[in-house]
Design a protein that fits this description.
single chain; alpha+beta; extended; Nuclear Transport Factor 2, Chain: A
Length: 129
Amino acid sequence: MLKKKVFLCAFFIVFSVIFPVYIYAEKSNVEESSEVLYRDAVLTLISDSINNSLVGHYGELPKYHLSSTKILNFRRIEEGGYSFEADVQVKSWTTPLPPYGLDTLKIEISPAGVGVLKFEHKEINSLTE
């Protein structure tokens, strides 16, 4: 019985080496719009500032989904310039039970870096509000 188990294990190992199975993420047939790509790039750029502000308020980094973070407003500060302001809203939680946080940040993005100009926290009872 033991010989049979050892033989089967050895067979599967040798078979796996000879015929490896590659797993790839399935590509979507739907092409992402430029707007989605730009939104995701901006959120990636400002995520460190969001995290630092949340840690400053909560004392630790609460849980939140970057994918559900909303850009409420995005504007160029000066015509022709490369400084921008973004109003961003994050729904965060530290426990599975309410209250949850609805955090709104005003973020400045410029060649000098990214900074948080304003942070507002509101407690909510549901993440779907």
